[in-house]
Amino acid sequence: MRAAIYREFAGPILIEELPDPELPVDGVVIEVKASGLCRSDVHGWEGRDPDIEVPMVPGHELAGVVRGVGAEVRSWKVGDRVTVPFCCGCGVCEQCRAGNTQICDDYFQPGFTAWGSFAQLVAIPAADVNLIGLPDDLDYPEAAILGCRFITAYRAVVERGRLRPGEWLAVYGCGGLGLSAVMIGATLGARVAAVDISDEALVLARELGAEATINATRGEVSDAVITATGGGAHVSIDALGNAGVAAAALLSLAKLGRHVQAGLLNEGPTPLPMDAVISRELEILGSHGLSVHRYDDVFELVADLDLSRLITRRLTLDEFPAALEAMRTFSGAGISVVTEFD
Ligand SMILES: [Zn+2]
Ligand SMILES: [Zn+2]
Fold first, then answer.
1. How far apart are CA 121 and CA 1, in angstroms?
2. Distance from the CA of 103 to the center of ligand 2, in angstroms?
């Protein structure tokens, strides 16, 4: 198969001919039709994710067609159109048995714990647990971007943040995760304040439903959000993953507000304004993807949405290495998806 591979952290990303993946007895091999570029691919390539051992084929946001089916798989057949959540479950641990595959004790993450989807083929174990069939009218690129950014935003906004119609949602960071949160918040009938350092990203956020947009390079951002929301947001989300951003997001909450940390913070302990957590009785919550069992709700939500508005670039596999390296400098708005692998 053709695939992207790096053999050292932050080293060259090469497009090479590699051996096809082995078919897991309980899993499938998927022909990848679309694979989204996510900031956690950058984290992983830079050596900031403890799960990764090199050499690694990155890619964890995918959709495609089943091409091989293991002997123990009961629910899937060759030709099925499928996706998977970026955090796949084992199916047998306590969390999986309780339905929480997104925090599986023995999780599988393509592109992190095994070779991923910037490749013509990817192997996924425990297929009866992890595969999700695609609605006929959902195209591969739109299905792929559900797999990490959109479902994490859904989990953060709907299930963890418990955002209600009419409430204010403050979204810090308008990359793929943040823009998904903006779209979901607006669709739920909430009011959305979007924060970023890029005017281009804020324009896109406004198009996707943000009522207030705040450029964080132009002054104190928490106060700006409190002013824009008339007293503070009910729910805040750090969709970037930065200690300063997480603190600012917390400080922009109204009393009894809920902060959801969805952007990855893997630089060690994160100082947070716990005095405000006490005096305003704030909640701090985490979001780590979405259980495979909750996808029906997501499909229902996106049925009336145009997810292609989140996708600003469609790339070939050969264009992937340069595009990933460019993400280090936060350039560009919206989501890039590889859709050509030959
Ligand atoms: Zn991701
Ligand atoms: Zn498990």
1. 7
2. 7
Count of CB atoms within 10 A of residue 40's CB? 25
Residue for token pair 């091409």: 67
Contact 41, 12 (CB under 8 A): no
Expressed in angstroms and rounded, the spacing between residue 28 Cα and the centre of ligand 2 is 18
Minimum-distance ligand to the CA of 151?
1
The values of phi and psi at residue 42, to 5°, are: -70, -45
Would you call 67 helix, strand, or coil by DSSP? Answer: strand
**Neighbouring residues of 97: CB distance < 8 A, sequence distance ≥ 6:** none
Contact 111, 60 (CB under 8 A): yes
Residue 327 Cα to ligand 1 middle (Å): 13
Question: Which ligand is located closest to the Cα atom of residue 49?
Answer: 1
pLDDT of the chain, 342 residues: tens digit per residue? 999 999 999 999 999 999 999 999 999 999 999 999 998 999 999 999 999 999 999 999 999 999 999 999 999 999 999 999 999 999 999 999 999 999 999 999 999 999 999 999 999 999 999 999 999 999 999 999 999 999 999 999 999 999 999 999 999 999 999 999 999 999 999 999 999 999 999 999 999 999 999 999 998 999 999 999 999 999 999 999 999 999 999 999 999 999 999 998 877 889 999 999 999 999 999 999 999 999 999 999 999 899 999 999 999 999 999 999 999 887 678 899 999 999
Looking at the CA of 335, name the nearest ligand. Answer: 1
Helix, strand, coil percentages (3-state) for the chain, rounded to 5, are: 30, 25, 40
Kindly give the distance from the C-alpha atom of residue 223 to the centroid of ligand 1, in angstroms, as a whole number.
Answer: 30
Query: Of the candidates 134, 127, 196, 184, which has an alpha carbon nearest to the alpha carbon of residue 160?
Result: 184
The answer to whether 316 and 338 have CB atoms below 8 angstroms apart is: yes
DSSP tag of 134: P
Question: In angstroms, what is the span from residue 71 Cα to ligand 2's centroid?
Answer: 21
Distance from residue 278's CA to the centre of ligand 1 (Å): 32
Q: Looking at the CA of 148, name the nearest ligand.
A: 1
- The CA-CA-CA angle for residues 208, 312, 302, to 5°, reads 50
